From TrEMBL:
Residues 32-135, 138-245 form the Gnk2-homologous domain. This is Gnk2-homologous domain-containing protein. PROSITE patterns: GNK2. Residues 1-27 form the signal peptide. The keyword Hydrolase does not apply. InterPro entries: GNK2, GNK2_sf. It comes from Tagetes erecta. Keywords: Repeat, Signal. The keyword Signal applies.
Amino acid sequence: MNTLMKTRSKILFLFLILLNVVSISMSEPVFYDIFRCKTDSGTFQANSPYKTSLMSALNSLAGETDKHHGFASKFIGNKTDEVHAVALCPGYLKPKDCASCVNNTIPLLLKKCPNQKGAAAWRFKCMVRYTAPVVNNYDLWFVAHEVSDIKAKNVTMLEKALSMLEGDLLRVLYRNDPRAYAFNSLGYGDQRIYMVMQCTPDILSDNCMKCLLHISREKKPCCNGAIAAAMLTPNCYLRYAHADFRIL
C-alpha cells in the first residue's frame, strides 16, 4: 500500500510539474528575428560613398542609445549618399542590454540585406533600420506580425481587455511622452495581459498616433484571440502577452 501511494504521489508531482511548464510556455510572448530589405530603395556598391556613410551611421548607434532612453538616430553623408540610421529599444530595457542587441543586430542585418539602401531588423530587444532620409522621418513601408498559435479560452474577454489596454496606452502616448513609450497590464477573469506601445521619438506626435492606429486595426484580422502577438513597423510597434516580457 505504501509503495502504491508513493508511486501515485510521484506521478501526481510529475504531472503538476508538466502542467506548470505547459502553462508557462503557453503564456510566454512570441519573439522572432524579422529582417526586411527595402526593395524599392535601390542598391549600393561595396566601395561606394553610400556604404561608407552607412557603416559610419550604424557604428555610432549603440553608443547613442544610452543617452536617449534607448533611441538613436544618425544622419551621415551628402545629399546623394545620405543615410539615416535608427536604433530603438523597448523603454523598459536596461541600457547595456539595448547596446548589446544593437551591436549584435547590425552585422545580421547587413548579411540579410547586403547591398540594399534600405533595410530593417526587429529582434527581441531592439530594432535597427536604415534608409535614405524621408519627410518627417516617417515611412511605414512594412508591417510584420508575430502571432502565437495558441488561442485564448475566452476570446471575447481577451479582446475586450486588449481594447481597454490599447485605449489606456494611446492616451498616455497622446499626452506626448518624450520617450514615445507606454506600458501597462490588466487583469481579466483569472488572467493578466501585458501590453507595450512605442514609437520612434523622432516622428511627429500625429504620425505616432497614425502609426499605432494603423497597426491596431491590423491586429484583429491577423491575431484575433491569440494569447500573444506583436505588430512591428519601422516607426512604431505594439506587443502583448500573458507573461511580463519586461523580465524575460
